[in-house]
Design goal:
The protein is an alpha+beta fold. The chain has helices at 15-32, 91-103, 172-191, 212-227, 250-261, 313-330, 368-375, 386-396, 447-467; strands spanning 40-47, 64-68, 73-78, 82-86, 106-109, 120-124, 142-146, 149-154, 157-166, 203-209, 233-244, 265-270, 275-280, 283-288, 291-301, 334-338, 344-347, 352-362, 383-384, 407-411, 417-421, 425-429, 432-441. Helix content is 29%, strand content 32%.
Amino acid sequence: MPLHSTKTPTRLFDAPLVLAELKRGIAKFLATAPVRPDEGFLSLTLPLSMQIPLVPESGLEKCRYLADPSEGRALLGFGSAQWWRAAGPGRFAKLGQFLLRAAQVWECHDPYATGLPPRAFLGYAFDAGRGPLTGPDLLPNAEIRVPLLLLQRLGDVSAVTFTAGTGHGTQPEEIAKTWTGVAVRALKALTNSGGSAVPRSSVRRITAEPEDTVWIRRAGRAIEAIRAGRLEKVVLTRRMVMAADREFEPTPILRRLEPLHGDCTLFSFSGNAMTILGATPERLVRLSNGHVRSDVLAGTHPPSGGNRLLESPKDIHEHRLVVDAVLSGLTPVCSQLTSPTEPRIRNLSSLQHLWTPVEGRARSGVTLLDLVARLHPTPAVGGSPHRVAMDWLAREGDCRLGWYTGGVGWVSPDGDGEVSVVLRCAVLTGNRATLSAGAGIVADSDPKTEWQETELKMRPMLDALEGG
């Protein structure tokens, strides 16, 4: 199939053929496209003659990966053309300013009209007050990272987007060498399956943080504070540290998650010595051509719960707090906001949740990062009232590892994009994996029942670790 076609039939991913196509496309583009002499960015999107896999066979180490298999969408980024980091209360505004300045000097070329623009990966921690994370986290507080090479798939269209910084006398030959080199590394990683299936791991629990009895007592104190009128809701988190008989690998873990959790957002963000990955069911917000969508998930039962969620005043109240917070956050920057008057049930393989979609139109000039700044953290991961709940959690020592209950997603130079809440995840460091889960506490909560809910939320990731 010629390079200029944007339709990609399903067939075996042929790395040598793809590399040859990309080399021709890069050479043709750089032979005619001027490279700006001042500082800026240059992106080139080239279609592929075959689909990239929604979940690759290998190669997720030291990469950024996002996929929504149910929508046929996947992003896989290699290398870094640029990154921006921020921390503190104004972190999203700072990242937005970095992106806005970059967009003004960003030349984006899509000569074959794939419709897939450059995208940067976005990730951030729950608490803006924490500085750049160190130690076992090895993640910044908040970051936008532009990959050197981005593999993209949307439905039956697959493409590669290359990005390079310009200025300081950058020559086309240098760009071609950099882009070709990262393409070789990316294609090698994608097709290096190791030749055999990954055996099951022996995984054992090392510790719980906090210990189970400590967490249950903390939940009891939260209920007392709520019944005394000091809080409406607070989300308590806990984590388990697991050890395996060999080093964890992100790719087989995600491949094990995908068949059961393909209706979730799969993600894997790797640093120097760690990876945070998972399958989250909750999209915080999506912005596309002015259309805004937020999916509120709050209220949880086991999958065999039938319609009990819709008949539970406790869960309906917990859910309504989140819906009201999302509507309040979006109203000043959106028009035509709509949401169903009653929640629906969203059934997942291991749990069911109350779900309410909220949709509207963003006002002129509003970007994804503006929306994230107004929504994060919702009462689904923090509490209500927001500031009181955050102070209570800090006093109680509720500590969240990495980006858990923060967000991961993507953003384009024009400010569109989407972010999902980091849930149902694990942080991998060598042969150690840290699983996190939380539960929303309201006046009618039972501490032991809420603890059991966190166990249910960790079970799918634990199963994937044992198989991956």
